[in-house]
Structures are given as C-alpha cells and as structure tokens.
Known about the structure:
Elements: H1 20-24, H2 32-44, H3 48-53
Amino acid sequence: MLSDNSCPCGSLRPYSSCCESFLLGTAIAPTAEALMRSRYTAYATHIPPFQLAHRN
C-alpha cells in the first residue's frame, strides 16, 4: 500500500516505519501523539475498521 511513501501523518518517515504497525494491529502506539497520528493516517487512507476499533 503505502510502505515506501511518506506516512500521511506528517512525520516525514516512511509509512512502513511509522504508523503501519499500529494500523495492522501488530504494535500499540506508545504515546498519545503516535495514537493521534495513526488515527489521522487511518482517516486519510480510508481504513474504517481501525477508526471504529479505537473510538474511545
């Protein structure tokens, strides 16, 4: 999908080493900022199951 591209969250890091693991469910965001960035990435890339699973 976006693995080699810059992450949509704005971090300037590749998606594969930024939000991808959070969106795949293989890692938990370590900070509130990382969680918010991953939620934005889910929104920007139209990944509704991630958004619904993390509503609170």
